[in-house]
From TrEMBL:
<dbReference type="GO" id="GO:0051087">
    <property type="term" value="F:protein-folding chaperone binding"/>
</dbReference>
<comment type="similarity">
    <text>Belongs to the p23/wos2 family.</text>
</comment>
<dbReference type="Pfam" id="PF04969">
    <property type="entry name" value="CS"/>
</dbReference>
<dbReference type="GO" id="GO:0005829">
    <property type="term" value="C:cytosol"/>
</dbReference>
<protein>
    <submittedName>
        <fullName>Prostaglandin E synthase 3 like</fullName>
    </submittedName>
</protein>
<dbReference type="InterPro" id="IPR007052">
    <property type="entry name" value="CS_dom"/>
</dbReference>
<feature type="domain" description="CS">
    <location>
        <begin position="12"/>
        <end position="100"/>
    </location>
</feature>
<dbReference type="GO" id="GO:0006457">
    <property type="term" value="P:protein folding"/>
</dbReference>
<dbReference type="GO" id="GO:0051131">
    <property type="term" value="P:chaperone-mediated protein complex assembly"/>
</dbReference>
<dbReference type="InterPro" id="IPR045250">
    <property type="entry name" value="p23-like"/>
</dbReference>
<dbReference type="InterPro" id="IPR008978">
    <property type="entry name" value="HSP20-like_chaperone"/>
</dbReference>
<dbReference type="GO" id="GO:0051879">
    <property type="term" value="F:Hsp90 protein binding"/>
</dbReference>
<dbReference type="GO" id="GO:0005634">
    <property type="term" value="C:nucleus"/>
</dbReference>
Amino acid sequence: MNKPKIVRPEESQPAHALWYDRKKYVTINFKIQKPKDVQVDIQPDKLILCCKNDTDDVYYNELYFYDKVQIHDSRERVYDRTINVLLRKVKPDYAWPRLQKDTAKASWISVDFDNWRDWEHEEDEGKEEYDRYMDMISEMATSNKGHTPDMGDLSDSD
């Protein structure tokens, strides 16, 4: 089933995007306040995003990837202030030095240094899984109003 082609609206601007590279995925966060009418088209070599924000500003981004991605294992998620796009690399364990094929830097793309890791030179194979696990544990703690999970049967107060 083909999705309708996304056409660039006449009055549009690019949304600011933060991106970072991992072993198997590239993540892009488009910064848009209360996005609506979101259309995302992920193709093996490019991505098109079109949407509006809460004040009806129109955003349109089109970018050609540095390398190919697997479209069936890539997805987007819409949040209150961002549209998160997770792109599965066709060639895992291959670092992307930039997000776009074009070497000219687009003004609306920035590296997400808070999430960036120089994983190419990491000795520790399980580090990413460990970090994800630790993120999950801390997320559980905060969503559980700060309480750690009850591990009563492990208690040594018996």
